[in-house]
């Protein structure tokens, strides 16, 4: 699944949290597993060998959970949602990364690579992934109208307020 979709799912999961800082932490947890793909910058060989290893196992998820417990405001809630957000990334990859991109979920304790099979597995550039992305956009717009915030808040509150104002003009013009 593309990082944008992972990020949108993470931000949607973060919605029970009051503080923007906590929502940013939970959104980050949905993106960080792919740091193990950053080696692509150094070498394609590295990428092929290590993408889906270091960042795609439960221990990395637990590490993120501990970090959230330390830096979050609403500590218990944010760490629980971080763990869910991390796992949403794993599930997204199992479903929508295509064949040959399994996840060694218990690495390094156990090197078994888990992989779904059709129909619960589809390619990266598939209509299923597009559908998931489109669904996330709809949910984000609904949150924007109801709670007056969108995923843009991660980058800028000012821009986010402008986007929320636009959504409200579109969807509440009769009110
Ligand atoms: Zn991934």
Provide a concise account of the structure shown.
This protein has 175 residues and is mainly alpha-helical.
Structural features, described:
This protein has 175 residues and is mainly alpha-helical. The protein has 7 helices and no strands. The chain has helices at 3-13, 20-31, 44-50, 58-71, 75-96, 127-147, 157-171. The model has no long low-confidence stretch (mean pLDDT 93). Zinc ion binds at residues 33-34, 56, 89, 93. Zinc ion binds next to helix 5.
Distance linking N and C termini: 38 Å
Low-confidence stretches: none
Q: Which structural category fits the helices and strands?
A: mainly alpha
Hetero groups: zinc ion
Reported for the largest beta sheet, the result is:
none
Cα Rg: 17 Å
Helix content: 55-70%
Mean pLDDT: 93
Binned strand content: under 5%
Shape: globular
**Helical element count?**
7
């Amino acid at each position: 699944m593309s990082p944008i979709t992972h990020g949108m799912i993470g931000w949607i999961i973060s919605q029970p949290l009051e503080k923007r800082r906590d929502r940013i932490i939970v959104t980050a947890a949905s993106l960080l597993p792919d740091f193990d793909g950053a080696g692509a910058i150094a070498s394609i060989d590295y990428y092929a060998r290590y993408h889906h290893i270091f960042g795609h196992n439960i221990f990395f998820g637990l590490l993120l959970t501990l970090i959230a417990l330390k830096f979050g405001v609403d500590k218990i809630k944010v760490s629980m949602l971080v763990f869910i957000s991390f796992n949403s990334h794993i599930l997204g990859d199992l479903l929508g990364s295509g064949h040959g991109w399994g996840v060694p979920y218990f690495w390094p304790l156990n090197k078994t690579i888990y992989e779904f099979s059709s129909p619960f597995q589809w390619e990266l550039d598939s209509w299923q992934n597009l559908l998931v992305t489109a669904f996330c956009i709809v949910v984000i717009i609904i949150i924007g109208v109801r709670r007056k915030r969108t995923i843009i808040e991660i980058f800028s509150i000012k821009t986010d307020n402008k986007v929320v104002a636009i959504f409200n003009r579109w969807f509440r013009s009769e009110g």
